[in-house]
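TA notes. Do not distribute before section.
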Amino acid sequence: MPRSGSGHWGSPSPTAQLAQHPDQPNCQVSINFPISSDKIPSVLKKSINSACRSQHHVLKGDAMFPFPGFYCIPVFVGVPADVRAKQDTVCYYGNRGSSEPIRLNPGIYGLSNSLLDTPWKKLLKGKQLFTSIVNDQSLSCDGLVQELLNVLNNEELNTPDPIQEKQGDGYSKSLIQALSAVCVRSPHYGTRTNTIILIDAEGNVTFTERTMLDFDTSKWSTNSFQFNLQA
């Protein structure tokens, strides 16, 4: 997830969609937002629409393929110098669902490989676990990170789930079952990276990332970085 010096964040993630061609491109658009928070929605829409070129991407020669479904969440984080004048701003936008960016009110939201807060059982379970952890005032920063990583590595299957199964029409039954877990494990597809970002009221950021090594689920590398958002 990119970060600019003034506390703006934005990164795309894909939504579930069966590829119509083995060479169909994945979404790889990254955008920084060195702008004021009130302009984020309009700049976000303009930047993504320009990158996607009417939701099509030229692959080889004249071959054209539909741009995969994705969403992007830019964040304007108020830093100490201006936090009293401006509130943190979070938006949601993608090439599926609403045609306009959605400014999110304070609260807890869930995202999986679908639209915002689509009530998949895995998403509802993840939100329940997440809410319980962030409301635990006894946790230290390190303890909070570890508990959140535990949520992201929950391999419990959440089946049957008719809503998820409908969106996954065309997938094999075994893959749909595997995809019902927060942490996906299957022979050729699964979760390989976890990211936790904590930002306190003073603009101090703890960025932790846990990544699988050599496609081996028993080997992981965890790195953590601390920095302060500058005005």
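Switch to the second chain here.
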Amino acid sequence: MSHGGNVKTSPAIVIEEPANDKADVSVVRQRIDEIDQRIIGLIHTRKVMSQQVQRTRIDAGGQRVEPIREAAITKNYCAPFGEAGSALAAALLRICRGQHATQLPDKGGR
């Protein structure tokens, strides 16, 4: 659906900006809801992939969590979003490993 405005792109989402500032709020909110659903789907996909990595690491005798990797992820979110990016990364990392803490026990207390 084109509103005749500028189109901005990010790595995974194309966002059409309204042609003027008087866009119908309900239309914009609907678009936001659609984007939120896509984000939720991507988080679910990330969670499954994270579980695969955790399982592989544990099966190889390693730790479930790799602090250096998590620090790099946090840095990636801080770059565009600052302090809020740090909180976003922390929440994302908790989501992707939280449930798995009981499903994927570390070997040898690691």
